[in-house]
Amino acid sequence: MLPMSIGLADTSTRLRSWIRGNLRYDLPASLVVFLVAVPLSLGIAAASDAPVAAGLIAAVVGGVVAGLLGGSALQVTGPAAGLTVVVAELVGRFGWAATCAITVAAGLLQVAFGLCRVARTALALSPAIVHGMLAGIGVTIVLGQLHVLLGDEPGSTPIRNLLDLPAQLANLHDHAALIGLTVIGLLVLWPRLPGPVRRIPGPLVAVTLATLAAVVWNDVDLARVEMPGSLLAAVHLPALPDGDWSAVVAAVLTVAVIASVESLLSATAVDRLAADRAAPGDRPPRPTNLDREMIGQGVANSLSGLLGGLPVTGVIVRSSTNVNAGARTRGSAVLHGVWVLLFAVLLVVLVERIPMAALAGLLVVVGLQLVKISDIQRVRRHRELAVYVATALGVVVFNLLEGVLIGLALAVVLILRRVVWARVHAERVRATPAGREHWSVHVEGTLSFLAIPRLSVVLGRVPPGSAVELELATDYLDHAAFDHLDGWVRQHETTGGSVHLDQVGPAALRGDQPRPRRRIHALVPPRWFSPWSSWQARHPDNGGEPHLSEQADSPQAALRPLHVGVREYHRRSAARLLPFLTELTGRHRPNSLFLTCADARIVPNVITSSGPGDLFTVRNIGNLVPTDHVAESSVAAAVSYAVDVLSVPLLLVCGHSGCGAMQGLLGGRAEEESHVGRWLRWGRPSLAAWRAGHPVGSAAVADGRAEVDQLAMVNVARQVAVLREFLAARGVEPGKVSVHGLFFDIPTGLLLVLDEQRQRFTWPPHHELETSGAGFVRP
Prior knowledge:
Elements: H1 2-21, H2 23-47, H3 52-69, E1 77-78, H4 84-94, H5 96-115, H6 127-149, H7 158-170, H8 175-189, H9 195-198, H10 202-217, H11 231-234, H12 245-277, H13 290-306, E2 313-314, H14 316-324, H15 331-346, H16 348-352, H17 356-369, H18 373-381, H19 385-397, H20 400-420, E3 422-431, E4 437-447, H21 452-460, E5 467-477, H22 479-494, E6 498-503, H23 532-535, H24 555-584, E7 592-597, H25 604-607, E8 615-620, H26 634-645, E9 650-656, H27 660-666, H28 675-680, H29 684-691, H30 695-702, H31 707-729, E10 738-745, E11 750-755, E12 760-762
Parallel strand pairs: 4-5, 5-6, 7-8, 7-9, 9-10
Antiparallel strand pairs: 1-2, 3-4, 10-11, 11-12
Helix pairs in contact: 2-3, 2-10, 2-14, 2-15, 2-17, 3-13, 3-15, 4-5, 5-12, 5-13, 6-7, 6-17, 6-19, 6-20, 8-10, 8-17, 12-13, 12-14, 19-20, 21-22, 29-31, 30-31
């Protein structure tokens, strides 16, 4: 008795803690979810060709059982639109009682999945297949429910429903069509209404108004929801299917897999949503225990099937409503199931007055919402649109299982193609006055024996005796491809031709290790960090030497590195940069103004790990800020534009080691009557501060810095002070814009931050560093 008493005491303690701490959040959230769940449960049951009460039973069991046993604190479980097509097929083939038995078996299989700890395996299914499956289900729902909305019965297949739809639209329609169209219109317009109105669930309002309209018209021919008297009367035991056990096993597996995948994907989405909505300072929500969630979903499905309910899954619509309504614990999901139970038992009369056309209109909108533009854009961005479309069409034309298998097969084919497919391209660059042709050959990707036929065809177009630039940008080079490519290079050189090998990827054709010992799955990096001099010394555009018709120091020769660099950008970098530039189109909201020296060795985006749209960069000799006639200064204009127009919250001044401007100040160039000398006069206050023993300069002396670097550090501190004075003179509110100093040490490649409390440049505070996993060793 002692363990039982301890367990009861612990449960009682947790219940009291929940009442004191979270009931005030979970109770109103559960009411909002309940109002959303009732019409959706009724509509999904109707679309599944199941008894309407089965939807309410599933909502009760899913909310209470999965809410108590599942691994997600905020996910709400119930009948889902994603299983309507499957259930409708099972009901038509086996009958409703046998479908309930299949649901029980599918639930037990889910429990086995959870106990075997394979829940995360379900997440390996490509999102393109999952979203395509849901889109196909959505289209199927829409095509079937449009006929119900128009007062007719849906056909046996989605294709038949599509073919019959024009004739159905041409007929005259009664009150049912008007009610259904009204529901659709309300649900489409509801998200665009003012905030206070949107707090009322749109499906509840639409179905309620449609029911009131049906009561006012009192149309005897209007089909309404049929209930068997009470929810308790709808409860009955399942029955075993008659024969065809292979089809039954396939059905159990189908229901279990789809319910599991949808629940787990919904749970991970709820985790992200809850983390995004967590208030600053709150404890972050505990992530879902996916194996426990699988067990909870399995138990709920088995119990729902035993009681005559629909299969259940974690539903993102109800779950997101739960999170947005402010739920804190699983108590909200459990209470929502309790409210559905009370409604179904006590208010059966209200349920029976709901017109079927209203539920059809609701399901048309639900089906359309399963075809999400954001999903299509996402899979298109990842080059998986073909998988999405094939899966969706397969579900609509054939059935759900065959559609998923079609999408899975196509996904595997595309993956294999990407793994074994190499891009091979050859083009004639030009011919020299001596008649020698110059060719460029690019090989990119994975080069295996499967690519040899195409590689041979492309290389065969290169004429003997020509100068060839062979760019090998491969992540893997197998033995057969290595031998073929190496043999072609040797043969071409024996015919009087020349081959300049430019190896960019990890798989090498020349070197001590011609083939990597293990396959390296890595994108070929663009030359973002490499100066022209490191890779253009013998570029094929020159044939490995200056053009015969040009002098090496001619303007044309000076332009050549730029032209080669631009072509390199177009070939390797432009496509990778384009998605970011597309997002920034029409939006220029940089994080910081970055004032730095014009020294060519300072690359702001590289040393700050930033990209397009992050830095509003201003450069001049010595990173100086003129203090006299400020209104006419280009620096002042840039700062004013950044603060007033772009609303940047941060101004950064970055100096560097070995600065030529600081050397000029030390050497007296500020006294010269020249453009450089007159500009350097703005640095005289920094020089005077350094000579007077500025604390930053003293710290630099203690660190063993050379005089030019001491002055550069003092100059950064001085320009920071000048910018703050400039902001104050313009009336910028204190704290609105912060100003900070940086120092780039070229010999070590380190970027240091000015610590104004200690008056020295130091390593950035640890909490500001974010690494991506490769790690960074602090010096």
